[in-house]
Amino acid sequence: MSRPSVQAPSAVIMVRPHHFTVNTQTAADNSFQKMQSAGGDLAGRAYREHSAAVQRLQEAGVTVHVFEGTDPETPDCVFPNNWFSTHAGGHVAIFPMKAPNRRLERRQDVIEMLKTRYRVQDVIDYSGLEPDGLFLEGTGAMVLDHIDRVAYAAQSDRTNPVALERFCTHFNFEPMVFPAADSAGAPVYHTNVLMCVGTDFVMIGDAMITDTSRRAEILSRLRQSGREIVSLTEDQIARFAGNAIELQGRDGPVLALSQTAFDALREAQIEQLRSSATLLPLDIPTIEMAGGSVRCTIAGIHLSAR
């Protein structure tokens, strides 16, 4: 078994959706949402997909703490990585969310479970920034390199620079901000659909970083970290190939990604990734209609167990 990495948590939190549906409050700036064309029993399909994904992760040796998303006012509760994050040393952050109904996803029972099962020293709550229109949607807005302490962040309304600077100061990350958009000019709404930082690799849609000099800086920084870069096309990004997360399984690193994402990868890319982790495709096509994929459904626990 390989040595555990601080980049790849062995335990995660997931929220199983009971009332999954279109979130009209997030549709304006999330070009990945495809819910308009969806047909019947969305909630039932999403529930079954999520349950199967949890089972597959558990079978791979990942500890999954499952919470039930029973509030009909929180259609995006299946994406808990946006409202909180955890950090080595016992630190927890709670984030300010742009959509009013997404603010309802914050749950004290999740925080209490973390305090009970893991060593939590402090909880820093940034949600008070919301009335001032300052948003930072967690590890959706930021892709965190826990090894080299870098917070990669694509510019968007969901990634306010003031909130980002405050988080990075408190949690000892260096912010690296960049503009990113698709070929139609639509900004990338969350950084974690554009890139995934693993222990030994990075998956990134680098061509979508619109400032070429900043793109070169980002790629240079990633290469300096010693990671292998897997460059993704815009089409692969649209199919959620960048929305993956490295976890620690029973037998070593596991790369959790969707079946949609896996099918979008070229064989050479799959081989590149397999040299670092076991690929674990999870089939969640209904959930993906809401504009997020596997990474968005998983909140990693970077805390020491009690």
From TrEMBL:
Q: By its UniProt entry, which Pfam families does this protein fall under?
A: DDAH_eukar
Segments forming a coiled coil: none
Concerning Gene3D superfamilies, the annotation shows: L-arginine/glycine Amidinotransferase, Chain A
Q: Which InterPro entries match?
A: Amdntrnsf_FN0238
Cite the SUPFAM superfamilies for this sequence.
Answer: Pentein
Instruction: Enumerate the NCBIfam families for this protein.
Output: citrull_CtlX
Q: What is this protein called?
A: Arginine deiminase-related protein
Annotated organism of origin: Paracoccus onchidii
